[in-house]
Amino acid sequence: MAAERGARRLLGTSSFWLCCLLLLGRRAPGAAAARSGSPPQSPGSGVRTFTPFYFLVEPVDTLSSRGSSVILNCSAYSEPSPKIEWKKDGTFLNLVSDDRRQLLPDGSLFITNVVHAKHNKPDEGYYQCVATVENLGTIVSRTAKLTVASLPRFASQPEPSSVYAGNSAVLNCEVNADLVPFVRWEQNRQPLLLDDRVIKLPSGTLVISNMTERDGGLYRCVVESGGPPKYSDEAELKVLPDPEVTSNLVFLKQPSSLVRVIGQSAVLPCVALGLPTPTIRWMKNEEALDTESSERLVLLAGGSLEISDVTEDDAGTYFCIADNGNETIEAQAELTVQAQPEFLKQPTNIYAHESMDIIFECEVTGKPAPTVKWVKNGDMVIPSDYFKIVKEHNLQVLGLVKSDEGFYQCIAENDVGNAQAGAQLIILEHAPATTGPLPSAPRDVVASLVSTRFIKLTWRTPASDPHGDNLTYSVFYTKEGIARERVENTSHPGEMQVTIQNLMPATVYIFRVMAQNKHGSGESSAPLRVETQPEVQLPGPAPNIRAYATSPTSITVTWETPLSGNGEIQNYKLYYMEKGTDKEQDVDVSSHSHTINGLKKYTEYSFRVVAYNKHGPGVSTQDVAVRTLSDVPSAAPQNLSLEVRNSKSIMIHWQPPPPATQNGQITGYKIRYRKASRKSDVTETLVTGTQLSQLIEGLDRGTEYNFRVAALTINGTGPATDWLSAETFESDLDETRVPDVPSSLHVRPLVTSIVVSWTPPENQNIVVRGYAIGYGIGSPHAQTIKVDYKQRYYTIENLDPSSHYVITLKAFNNVGEGIPLYESAVTRPHTVPDPTPMMPPVGVQASILSHDTIRITWADNSLPKHQKITDSRYYTVRWKTNIPANTKYKNANATTLSYLVTGLKANTLYEFSVMVTKGRRSSTWSMTAHGTTFELVPTSPPKDVTVVSKEGKPRTIIVNWQPPSEANGKITGYIIYYSTDVNAEIHDWVIEPVVGNRLTHQIQELTLDTPYYFKIQARNSKGMGPMSEAVQFRTPKASGSSGKGSRLPDLGSDYKPPMSGSNSPHGSPTSPLDSNMLLVIIVSVGVITIVVVVIIAVFCTRRTTSHQKKKRAACKSVNGSHKYKGNSKDVKPPDLWIHHERLELKPIDKSPDPNPIMTDTPIPRNSQDITPVDNSMDSNIHQRRNSYRGHESEDSMSTLAGRRGMRPKMMMPFDSQPPQPVISAHPIHSLDNPHHHFHSSSLASPARSHLYHPGSPWPIGTSMSLSDRANSTESIRNTPSTDTMPASSSQTCCTDHQDPEGATSSSYLASSQEEDSGQSLPTAHVRPSHPLKSFAVPAIPPPGPPTYDPTLPSTPLLSQQALNHHLHSVKTASIGTLGRSRPPMPVVVPSAPDVQETTRMLEDSESSYEPDELTKEMAHLEGLMKDLNAITTA
Predict the structure, then answer these.
(1) For residue 427, which of 406, 397, 396, 398 has the smallest C-alpha distance?
(2) Helix axes 1075-1101, 1411-1433, angle to 10 degrees
(3) Which of 222, 832, 1126, 1300 has the highest CB neighbour count under 10 A?
């Protein structure tokens, strides 16, 4: 019958739309509704359509002032027109009886004469517009905040200042944030016009840039917020002429962190002062900002940055950098950009039938992330079993009923604002049946499967349609006792079963089934009552739960074991919650009772218990509620006041204690009073009930009494108020008229205050309850202050200097105010004393916390002894490191007596200092404190790893490297990994440890013609650093041949390798010569060498012994004043040096030393003579030669000479073996040649020095200081990055007659060094001292003009041809190498040991040669060198 009635109402609906609706419902039960479109109907149908109903205008946040008028706009569209109402703070406004608020015709709210007082703010708050259409629904607008500007109060005021012309000035005027729009400035009491040079910052501060004389004057800011204007202090701004001297840069205004909303403008203030006038530039996140080409970035007066139309991309850290050419300072601020809530997806209108499930979708964005709440017809939607919030913001409604119809709104809100979007839900009647038979009720509906959470229903086809292939079914179900019914549809026609999910355990549900065919829905089956199974594996509820209060702060809860425990109960969880809150707390309990302590007194709590077994939590018990016991109040009554009625009575008023402190029901109050002169005699009076006043009578005349009040509960008396005093009148005075005028009024003006004093009226018979003091500039009605009748003076504060005030005084009582008494006064002018500097902080200490953190602490003597900061002072900490030397200070501010400096470098010495600032006063920087950060494991691998083969030992290689760039501490060793498989696991590589800071290492017994891969890892006290990249090296094929990465063999003095034959970085040979050609060249060189040796030997044997005698005489003449001590075994040959400026030889002695370890060490002649010193005394190291250094400018030479001149002397460690001098000679350029070139190589020596002969205008050479390094693990390597210097030093020897064979001793032969592989040469630290040179060192002209004779005959040792050729044509020759040309050998020390000066220079101020003697000596020298050559090659 119901279906037939629906058919009569909707005759126009076609069966097609009916089938569509049924299919929709069957396909998607959770969203079986038509959205945002026409309803499922045929033309002419009577089904309702969606009604347009929305807001045209919504209220926005508004700022108003006291006494002004405000309009909050609101307009809604609908047909018919909606009814508009307003809510304030969630409560509807009654606008009918309100004479200040009225509703305008369009729905806007108009408020006249806005009221705003300190304790009465009826108009300020949150407003919301509510639109309602009868029989349709209600929608609400966004909430708008109405802010009323408060009374003007200046947080800071302008101060007098003097500024040099061309600089900037800043005048502060900080007021409440809501008053900033009402601030304006005056100059000389005339409105100040703002322009590009004169701006007002958003805070109200005035900035004037590029000051001129016309900018001087008196400035003040004015606040006009509805009432009389409020003026700040007047400050004089003086413009001084440019002093043309420099001054330090300081910030007058620094940027501060801002929070802005997208679309707003942001101003970051930045004004700097200094001479020369600084320029301001801005950076954002380490990127420079281009304010000239950008349309949104504008540089305001003084350097402030304005960003218009802020976007999210503008958020970040901004740096203001002030630079005047002499100094640079910077400040930073953070800009945070927020966004109002915006809808990414708004709710859409929905058609649905009863029992369906629907979802309103709502997707919002904003910053901070907005919260979402739902409103239905203006009322908040409270989540429940049928109204659920799903997927964060979507609203799901289950089992629709007719009352769910209406308008639903999604309201998103964050700190910035709020927004709303809505949609309409229409519940359709079921489609009427068309003409044709409808199915009967399905038969035999049964629950074939019943579980705890789901039920499976099955049925048979209706009797009217036994086949039922085209029938669909809908299953309607609900909880027993709930009117809201849900529906589940079968998935395809003919299906006769459905499973209902998401049910509750042990709950009764009612089911019914309906069949549908093409004509409509048929009859419903009889209701089927089914109860789901209880949770069989989980415990049931704990029975007999009881709770009772045991004290005012504790409650005990007891219960019993669940009847259906389903296994052993492991523990219980007791949940409790204070009534009226939504924060539930829990505690684990193992027994059947528990006492909760620490609860609030006399407060109601609810409790429930859940049992746990091994499967999890069981069924919760029902909540039980109990209130804690009452107690005495914990606070005194509030707002106690006394009113003297007459000579014998005083009225007392008070308010109850705060509700949270009453701790029970207040049953009364206890009043105690006494005479002030007799404090021991106390009288008590009890007041019962809720009475909040009491008249105390029967008091003595003219007597002062003290009163106090305490609250009572059934538990006792709470704390009492403080004693309050009042004095009864001397007589019963008259209060039927106002008091007379005060008898006198006196004023005493100060700078910003006026002290007012007075005497009472002469007529003492009229009651005076107080005095009213009025004051203002020109009028006494601007401000009024009331004081007690006993008071006889008052100080009016916060006045303007140099201002004329009118003051009035009136006595008043309960009848009214009496006749006023007037007086006027002018406040004194304002004078600002110069701030005296503060004391700097003391006791600055640096406490190292980690490798990158140091805590700085200090004390401030200007603080009290307890060192507690109570004012607005702050401290500035600065720090820097001296490596590199030009490091700038970093600064940070702190408001406590310590600061944590982070982000430091490991193992680095820092210095710290602190200064204090308070207002305009600052101290100087404190004494510095130093601290070195802890070490850290190396964070970079060793660099420049090279591998070379050892000459003569193809199975031995030498690995060289450089320390890590980021060692982060002292390197204590290295680990060399090598393997033939670069892809092998690292634990399969061979490990060679290197102890100490050595930078070279030999690896022996490698396989020939095999590629090896090498990695190096550095170690310090904190651990191991990262490994270097793998370096490949192939060992040579056969013994004596060069492996890849090694040098080609020496092929004679005339051999010049082709350019293509240069070594690759890893030593791979690129020479095109094959092995046969190499063999021919080697044999040829050998034959030529033998012939040359024979010729030189024959020539040298023919020399007479007279040359030897002359050489010894020459040596004695040079060293006339020096005698060698000891026997012939102690005699050591002196170094032979040449003064190239005068082409003379000067042997320089070493002072003999009884310590045989400290001996003179010759410089090895070639790379084969350089042998690493180790315990095994292994064979020589074969090192690569440095290529010849090209032309260098005079500037580079002079710079190098300057560096050498500033470095100290250095020792040369070597082995304790007999000295083996090596003599080498190299042709030198002419001194007249303007281009001087060095035979240069690398030496890792940090020390060089200049030594000059004290008695002669000619500088003389110094001897090399040598020290023994036997058993050392240090060795020699090439270091191309170190300072260049000559590496060859020549030595000769002149012995006395006791050792005639000394000059030819075999111990001096270089051949012995080459042949004896068991001997180990020392590690040589070579340091030539300018301007003394060895044979291999080109001369640098002395600063003065040359004093030698240019026509002086030259020795044959120095070839005249070489003087006129470029350096690349000069050939070097070492005596004893059989004429083989070798470049000067670079002698490089990987790590310089501690220098220890063990030798001193022996000087001779009288030794000199005449030109003829020099010629002879040079000839002798030539002969001597040839003899030595012959001996060496023998």
Answers:
(1) 406
(2) 130
(3) 222
Lookup: tokens for 979: 């393997």
What is d(CA 524, CA 994) in angstroms, rounded to the nearest whole number? 94
Q: Label residues 1013-1047 b or e (16+ Cβ within 10 Å = b).
A: bbbbbbbbebeebebbebbebbbbeeeebbbbbbb
Report how many helices (DSSP H) and strands (DSSP E) the chain contains, helices first. Answer: 7, 97
User: Do 1150 and 1212 contact (CB within 8 A), yes or no?
Assistant: no
Taken in order 1362, 1368, 1373, 1378, the sign of the CA dihedral is negative
Tell me phi and psi for residue 859, to 5 degrees.
-125, 155
Q: Is 890 within 8 Å of 880 (Cβ atoms)?
A: yes
- Distance CA(1002)–CA(947), nearest Å, equals 10
Query: Do residues 1012 and 1006 make contact, with C-beta atoms less than 8 angstroms apart?
Result: yes
899 — pLDDT class (breaks 50, 70, 90)? very high
Burial per residue of 1144-1179, b for 16 or more beta-carbon CB atoms within 10 angstroms, e otherwise? bbbbbbbebbeeeebbbbbbbbbbbbbbbbbeeebb
Tokens of 585: 């707390």
CA 251 to chain centre: 23
User: Which phi and psi angles does 878 have, rounded to 5°?
Assistant: -125, 150
User: What's 840-853 look like in SS3?
Assistant: CCEEEEEEECCCCC
How far does the chain reach from its first CA to its final CA, in angstroms?
A: 139
Q: In whole numbers, what is the pLDDT of the chain averaged over residues?
A: 74
Q: In 3-state terms, what secondary structure has residue 765?
A: coil
635 contacts 717 by C-beta, under 8 angstroms? no
Lowest mean per-residue pLDDT among 47-61, 301-315, 1075-1089, 1184-1198: 1184-1198
Q: What is the pLDDT of residues 110-124, one digit of tens each?
A: 998 888 877 788 888
Q: Which two tokens stand for residue 443?
A: 């038969």
Please give the Cα distance from 465 to 958 (Å, whole number). Answer: 101
Identify the helix (H) or strand (E) that includes residue 477: strand 472-479
The per-residue DSSP string of 393-448 comes to TEEEE-S--GGG-EEEEEEEE-SS-EEEEEEEEEEEPPPPP-SSPPP---EEEEEE
Which band of pLDDT confidence, cut at 50, 70 and 90, is reported for residue 386? confident
Tell how far CA 160 is from the center of its chain. 38
Q: Is beta strand 472-479 parallel, antiparallel or unpaired with respect to 486-489?
A: antiparallel
The rounded radius of gyration (Å) of the Cα atoms in the chain is 52
Question: Closest Cα to residue 1294, out of 1043, 1129, 1171, 1119?
Answer: 1119
* Among the listed residues 1254, 1258, 1240, the one whose alpha carbon sits nearest the alpha carbon of residue 1367: 1240
Q: Which residues have CB under 8 Å from 765's CB, separation 6+?
A: 731, 733, 734
Q: 1350-1360 burial by CB neighbour count: b if 16+ within 10 A, else e?
A: eeeeebebbee
- What is the total residue count of the chain? 1434
Task: Please give the Cα distance from 601 to 614 (Å, whole number).
Answer: 38
Q: Are 1250 and 1357 in contact (CB under 8 A)?
A: no
